[in-house]
Amino acid sequence: GNVAAFDMGDPEAVVSPGGVGFDINCGVRLVRTNLLEKDVCEIREQLAQSMFDHIPVGVGSQGVIPTSSTDLEAALEMGMDWSLREGYAWAEDKEHCEEYGRMLQADPSKVSQRAKKRGLPQLGTLGAGNHYAEIQVVDEIYDKAAAEKMGIDQKGQVCVMIHSGSRGLGHQVATDALVAMEKAMARDHIETNDRQLACARI
User: Is the pTM of this model over 0.70?
Assistant: First the structure.
């Protein structure tokens, strides 16, 4: 999900926490491999089963990352630097993330206790609904220069596409923001056709 903000020079402009998607940090990543389709073709069923066995998915799923309240606070503040410190990421991963995987102004105290409670057992899970981890094969390269920057250099290359959710924590953060926005909307007489588009004057 993303926050949508509009022209600050316009006194009628608004900011909406649910402008694109609802929960924070729900996103898609492509992980390239050095494998080709012929390398995995004969074991693709076992590979898919192994992913299913090792990646917690679905409503109510719990993470395999042992997480204390202190760990969650650190993860919220440090972002990818926490993952790197704990051995869940490589240093070069930061180069492929917005703000190098860490917002320097991040303040975990701004996140409600309810959101933290909902997120604590879910760190490291994939999510439910339209979230997935999928093994894919490059069929066609349309922009060679762009593909090479992403490490994709040939047809038949195997990639993993991951669409992860922010689970209970992100959903609660967005819900908390919407409640605050709804109060501002009532105050400023703003109407929208969808509750998730709640907004406030900038």
Answer: yes
Q: Which residue has the higher pLDDT, 166 or 100?
A: 100
H or E segment to which residue 35 belongs = strand 27-36
End-to-end C-alpha distance for the chain, whole angstroms: 19
At 188, the amino acid letter reads: D
Please, which residues have CB within 8 angstroms of residue 90's CB and are 6 or more apart in sequence? Answer: 84
Residue with tokens 């924070």: 24
Q: Quick one: pLDDT at residue 166?
A: 78
H or E element in which residue 157 lies: strand 157-164
CA distances 86 to 2, 116, 127, Å, are 27, 19, 21
Tell me the C-alpha distance between 1 and 112, whole Å.
18
Percent of the chain with pLDDT over 70: 96
- DSSP element (H, E) containing 5: strand 2-5
201, 7 Cβ separation under 8 angstroms = no
